[in-house]
Amino acid sequence: MSADPARPPVRPVxxxxxxxxxxALALARFxxxxxxxxxxxxxxxxxxxxxxxxxxxxxxxxxxxxxxAFQRIDDWVPPTWPGGEHPQQFHLDFAVPVIADAEPAVLAxxxxxxxxxxxxxxxxxxxxxxxxxxxCLCRGMxx
Length: 143
Prior knowledge:
Blueprint: E1 16-21, H1 24-35, E2 38-39, E3 47-51, E4 67-72, E5 92-96, H2 99-109, E6 112-113, E7 124-128, E8 134-139
Parallel strand pairs: 1-4, 5-8
Antiparallel strand pairs: 2-3, 3-4, 6-7, 7-8
């Protein structure tokens, strides 16, 4: 069956980015503190979802903003980066006006600075969340 050329294609809306981890609630609390987002009611150690300001599920977010969810994995092994036995599959980038101004809050929430910093220009800095996922603060958000 072919699509009707007169109808525009149905495009998916990115709803959730789900991170595997050893404790879903603990990692959701970390990212909730970093982003200023709230935990969804019913979140627990097995599955936790963050709610961005002004939105619940995808139809309630007409601007298409996705949210983060976390799922507990019994045999969790943190990714290794930049190489190693358990390579990073993906990472999160967070835009900030000035990296040095945003860094104290992510460190206070429980992040650590990664020993490997490949950005020669200083345009981004790599951190590890409490479960070991790499993420970056990236210079570029306008104030």
